[in-house]
Amino acid sequence: MSSTRVHASMDTAMAALDKEKWKKNIHVLSEKLRKFPGLVWQKIGKVGRDDPRRIVHALKVGLSLTLVSLLYLLEPLFEGIGQNAIWAVMTVVVVLEFTAGATLCKGLNRGLGTLLAGSLAFFIEFIANKSGHVFRAVFIGAAVFLIGGAATYMRFFPHIKKNYDYGVVIFLLTFNLITVSSYRVTNVLRIAHQRLYTIAIGCGICLLMSLFVFPIWSGEDLHNTTVSKLEGLAKCIEACVNEYFSNPEQEVAQDKLCDDPIYQGYKDVLDSKSRDETLALHASWEPRHSRHCRYPWQQYVKLGNVLRHFSYTIVALHGCLRTEIQTPRSVRVLFKDPCMRVASEVSKALMELASSIKNRRHCSPEILSDHLHEALHDLNIAIKSQPRLFLGSKKNQASNMLALQAATQANHQKHEKDHHGVSLSSVKTDSSALLEWKNKRGNEQPKENPERKTLRPQLSKIAITSLEFSEALPFAAFASLLVETVARLDNVIEEVEELGRIACFKEFKPGDEVVVDCETPKIDVTQNYLPSYGAD
Amino acid sequence: MSSTRVHASMDTAMAALDKEKWKKNIHVLSEKLRKFPGLVWQKIGKVGRDDPRRIVHALKVGLSLTLVSLLYLLEPLFEGIGQNAIWAVMTVVVVLEFTAGATLCKGLNRGLGTLLAGSLAFFIEFIANKSGHVFRAVFIGAAVFLIGGAATYMRFFPHIKKNYDYGVVIFLLTFNLITVSSYRVTNVLRIAHQRLYTIAIGCGICLLMSLFVFPIWSGEDLHNTTVSKLEGLAKCIEACVNEYFSNPEQEVAQDKLCDDPIYQGYKDVLDSKSRDETLALHASWEPRHSRHCRYPWQQYVKLGNVLRHFSYTIVALHGCLRTEIQTPRSVRVLFKDPCMRVASEVSKALMELASSIKNRRHCSPEILSDHLHEALHDLNIAIKSQPRLFLGSKKNQASNMLALQAATQANHQKHEKDHHGVSLSSVKTDSSALLEWKNKRGNEQPKENPERKTLRPQLSKIAITSLEFSEALPFAAFASLLVETVARLDNVIEEVEELGRIACFKEFKPGDEVVVDCETPKIDVTQNYLPSYGAD
Q: Which of A233, A500, B19, B504 is most buried, taking the most CB atoms under 10 A from its CB?
């Protein structure tokens, strides 16, 4: 009886709680709804602010559509063209792309595809025309099957896929349109003719709009992204070395990879392959749009490849900051000066390359300055002057260094505790944890323990930290990778010089080498490249 | 006079030579023409052999097109649908994609876009209907401009671009079609209605074909590429360490990066980002197509990211094989055994992960075996037992090692000469070349010397090799990176376990761990993903 009462009172308490919860939820929801229009407005604004050319493009599409609609809306124009003016409207929707190169590529593909399909359809029509009604239907069906299969198969050829894929789709579409229509429509010549010239009108409007009204060039984008990639890498390499030699306190905040400014610096370069290739493909369709001799889009792609290879070394360098065995900071300090100098010289060289491309002039002959050579030399001397560091076997010294490291880590952990309220001391650093974990794992049922992932200590990390590797090893890796960046810098310089030669950059004049970093806001062009659709 | 005769005789000789040349050219050309059909045939065959599903897809497209043409060709069907049956044909051309997921994504987008555009167009029509002829034209023009601009702007929103871009394009197309037509056609309801159901018929045929006739799943592709990426990395890491410790004679042939099997191994992983994301997007549209609980496409993308990060370390490791300062082979040999064992254990673990994903079962709890731990331990001991190697300053010993290295290099060069007939001895290895190059460059005119690139010695490489860095430095980097791969392996294992948990993999049974590498031919799925077009 008393238990029932307790239950009942608990139920009312629960109900009250539930009500409270509901009220709260509704409040939160209404708050969210109130803020929603503001958020949407903010988001809409952001897309335009990120790259104002998007607004220009949207207006251009609107204007072109209105212009092409006039064909249908204005009486005298409609008289001439007729009902099929609607094909011109469709063409504008699907052909007008963000950049001039992409529009040209699609427009010409569309024109060519339509023309070819029309010719082939006439040939088929010519044969089919001479036969009976039933045979004609069978013949058209067979032709549709064969041409459909063959054209689709052709789209898998790498070369065709890269350059003429859209043309093949339009070919297939127009071919089917004309061949199938020819069964019922007597004057199929008129359909084909109308389709061809309405599409031509549509393409014409698109080309006019994209080439002469605030044109946006793929080539320019390719140029600008190359400059910003070089600048990003330059900042990245300096930031990397700075962080390696900085105080541990400053590091604590950056424990998530995606928030890391260094990661942000090279991420763009790593992911640039497909974007670069698309830009280069579109740039290859663009007419010469400046006084420069010709647009070496292929060389930009090559430079992009070399930059990606350069950035892999930086990724590895960045990995040194987060590796499990760390050289104690007291040891690192010994090499701080020459390393920082090497990094700053490499960074300066990259900045000079960026500014050379930006201003379309040859890069300074002083680009690999004596400073770099000196800095490398000093690094070499510093390493040679500290031979004992590379000794791992001197027990007392090793334990000394380990003690130092332990002290640093304890300090570090304390800081982390202060900041996050999380204790890291429960992570076992001896290999007994290995055995323990294995035993645990053998017994448990994987499905019944969703927390397994969090419970599990990082197994191989234990294996690594439990070994007392020479602490100089990671520093040696760091130094070696830094020297490697210098070697790879050479390839970058070579490709930039080649670019300068092909693109007829200006001569270098003394005084040009002043690197003015005006810190222009970086535009994420990736978001601009809308996927292209658009048969009709 | 005699000089004229000489000239004349030279002219006849030249003419004879020219004729000879022409004949030869024509012969070469005719030979090429004769071989051309064979080559084309070979290429056509290769596309199909690379992935036979391409043939299936081509046949499916042909069949669907024929089926949909029947709507137009068969009398009773045509009676019901009429002239606009052609829209169904168009829908099939543009919606039927290689995989089921992509087809579903496009089909549903197309349906949704058409529906929305139809509704909006009716609303506009409703308003415009009540006004005069001229006002109506202006109103339609304004609506086309506004909706065109707004829809295009919307396409730049990342979320819409990723999921609904095609839908927005179709919306715009249908909206324009109906609104503009409504100016001349009285019964616009019929157009909209017909368009909607012909498109529905087209989409229906496409979905039937892609879901029930030899379906090709994006999810399966994502699964298989993940397995082959893991296998590629496993082979890559072993090949890398093998090459590092192999004899120099075997290396000579692999001087071009693109022919390098190691490069081939990780290249796929590096370039996989956009392909993985597309596959995952399409997989997310696919219905549950197997008895497994649900398709964790997002987890595959995460695993792909971790694998890419893993492969950056391998790129750096690979860089160690080609760096300028090399640890002499006599020194490397001292560490050969433990390094090879670490690499083979890492490789074994990756293979086990690959087979675990391939067979959809949890991976062995023994995946990080004691062997790995032992191998790391031995590597540590080996490094500690050779402290003198990490000493760069002991003059006599350093020069000893340099002499050794010089001898090795001379040997190496001799081999290269034998193979290529190219002498490398002209490359200056002292820093005087630096000065020389600078002087040369200051004087020359860049435009007038196209060969400058080949003349120029590799500048910073000179700077690096002229310094006598401790030769142990690059080995330390190599060892450190190898240890780093073990640390990163942990992240890979974690993500694979998470994948196993989400995708409800089978329990691991003892006996499963036998890694059978059946060496299935690798399919390059990249080539399968045709760009998608296809408004109508």
A: A233
> Residue A503's pLDDT band (boundaries 50, 70, 90)?
confident
Does residue B387 share a domain with residue B403?
Answer: no
Q: What is the token pair recorded at B254? A: 């692999």
The answer on A203 and A226 residing in a single domain is no
Closest to A382 in 3D by CA, of A510, A488, A476: A476
- Of B178, B228, B422, B461, the C-alpha closest to B325 is B461
Closest CA of chain A from B18, distance in Å: 33
Q: State the best of B273, B483, B493, B529 to mutate against chain A, taking most chain A CBs within 10 Å.
A: B483
Given this model, what pLDDT does residue A139 score? Answer: 87
Do B131 and B190 lie in one domain? The reply is yes
Rounded to two decimals, the ipTM of the complex is 0.75
B153–A58 CB contact, under 8 Å: yes
Residue B29 inside a domain? The answer is no
What the block records as the tokens of A88 is 């011109």
Most confident by average pLDDT, A131-140, A352-361, A463-472, B503-512: A352-361
**Minimum distance, in Å, between the CA of residue A388 and any CA atom of chain B:** 8
With contacts defined as CB-CB under 8 Å, which chain A residues touch B260?
none
Which residue of A73, A106, A135 is the best one to mutate when testing the B interface, meaning the one whose CB has the most B CBs within 10 A? A73
Interface contact B65-A273, CB threshold 8 A: no
Whether residue A336 sits in one domain with residue A372:
yes
Task: Say whether both B408 and B356 belong to one domain.
Answer: no
Q: Please indicate, yes or no, whether residues A170 and A70 belong to a single structural domain of this protein.
A: yes
pLDDT at position A145 over 90: yes
Count of structural domains within chain A: 3
Residue B37 within any structural domain of the chain: no
Cβ-defined contact of A480 to B463 (cutoff 8 Å): no
Indicate if A303 and A320 belong to the same structural domain.
Answer: yes
Angstrom distances, CA of residue A486 to CA of A300, A317, A375, A472, B311: 21, 13, 11, 21, 22
pLDDT grade for B146, boundaries at 50, 70 and 90: very high
Chain-chain contact of A319 with B313 (C-beta, under 8 angstroms): yes
Q: Which of A301, A304, A280 is nearest to A221 (CA)?
A: A280
Structure tokens at A307: 């930059």
Domain with A416, as residue range(s), is 394-439+455-463
